[in-house]
Amino acid sequence: MQRRTFIAAAAAAAAAGSFIGLPAFAQGTWPTGKTITYLVPFAAGGTTDTLGRLISQQLGTALGTTVVVDNKGGAGGSVGSEIAARAAPDGYTLLGGTISSHAINVSLYPKLGYDPVKSFAPVTLIGTNPVVLVVAASSPYKTLKDVLDAARGKSGGLSSASAGTGTSQHLALELLAYKSGVKFTHVPYKGSGPAIQDVIGGQVDMMFDTTVVAAPHIQSGKLRAIAVTSAKRLGSMPDVPTVAESGLKDLADFEVQSWQAIFVPAGTPEPVVTRLHTEIRKILAQPDMQTRLKSFGMEPADMTTAQIATFQKAEVAKWAQVIKAANIKVD
Fold it and tell me: How many Å apart are CA 208 and CA 192, to the nearest integer?
């Protein structure tokens, strides 16, 4: 009897000891109150940053901890994404991933410091949105034809800003150049915020940018919208024609859809990913958040993590073909 009692006690002690070295989430206590970092791989003021700040405050409240946005811009989202890929998979690092950082860059950068699929686990697809071609309100260009004609008549073409090489803004420009046969000078920045300010100020001729960033400036009268890259006109911008409506045969099938998502480092425990997915899904489903996203011209998404993974792999393959066909090179 004494021997059985000793064995049982020893087994219990061993079991308790085996948990001492395990991370907190393994014991069901994640998060512990430790600050969660929401990495934004672009400068402040852009789409990913705007969405990150909208989501992080409510997410912190839902999880009972603090979620801090940390901007690490550069190389079309690659710099911040590499930092996130190397972070501990413990649930305390989130990444605002995009079409550029998690679908396009892998076909542009020969030495990318992470694998967009293998280095991460998807949490949430926030939504998709087209980009819109804009010029300063003082610009003489009012239509896409005006833009193309002016670019043809200028050495090097018109200058066009972007949030960075390999971003959806950059790819939209390259596709326009490829399909129309017109040259442009690409001017990459470390995010949409500083880029669009230079377009407003007239330092750069034009820019393709997401509707999330461009819409407020269009509504305030600082920018003029020339065309959107969606297949149909947007409900939030009914007076702005699509690129396909330009009347040019070569642009009849022109379409570029950007997207925003949230990822965590690969290896993050499934219960943590599930909790994050559930809480962020609740935040995005709120009527005021849905209204806010749609006012940006963004179409909210609602996918499972498995569906996001499938979607992302298809996007990687799609843009690899586009980049190869258009012979797009990193600046």
Answer: 10
